Amino acid sequence: MMTESSSSFFELPLEEQTKVLYMNGSFILSIRYYGYKVNLYLLENTYIEVFYNHKLDVIEKIQELDYQHTRMKFYADQINIGSIAC
Q1: How many domains does the chain have?
Q2: Do residues 39 and 32 touch, judged by C-beta distance below 8 A?
Q3: I want to staple 43 with a disulfide (CB 3.0 to 4.6 A). Which of 14, 25, 27, 58 is the partner?
Q4: SS3 of the chain: helix, strand, coil, percent, to 5
Q5: Where in the sequence is the domain holding 46, given as residue range(s)?
Q6: Which residues contact residue 5 at a Cβ distance below 8 angstroms, ignoring those fewer than 6 apart?
């Protein structure tokens, strides 16, 4: 659920988004997805995915969780999807 403050979060540069997540977000879990380690965070009622490329040692993108994406099945193995799918 995107709010005005989460909307402004996504307008920040990637480095600033990372800082905000690590300082103010709550880490939920991480999954392996193709060449990425995807960390899921909760920030102000918004679930956010951080895509970390471990081979390049770089965060490549940060995006709001897409509840319709096939990645949800990987989260379902570790948590109750009903608890996050608002």
Answers
A1: 1
A2: no
A3: 25
A4: 30, 35, 35
A5: 4-81
A6: 44
DSSP 11: T
Q: Could you give the C-alpha distances from 77 to 24, 32, 68, 73, in angstroms and in order?
A: 26, 12, 16, 7
Q: Are 56 and 37 in contact (CB under 8 A)?
A: no
Helix residue ranges per DSSP H, 1-86: 4-9, 14-24, 72-76
Q: What is the DSSP string of 59-76?
A: EEEEEE--TTSTTHHHHH
Total Cβ atoms within 10 A of residue 75: 23
Residue 86 inside a domain? The answer is no
In a domain, 48, yes or no: yes
pLDDT confidence band for 7 (50 / 70 / 90): confident
> What pLDDT is attached to residue 21?
95
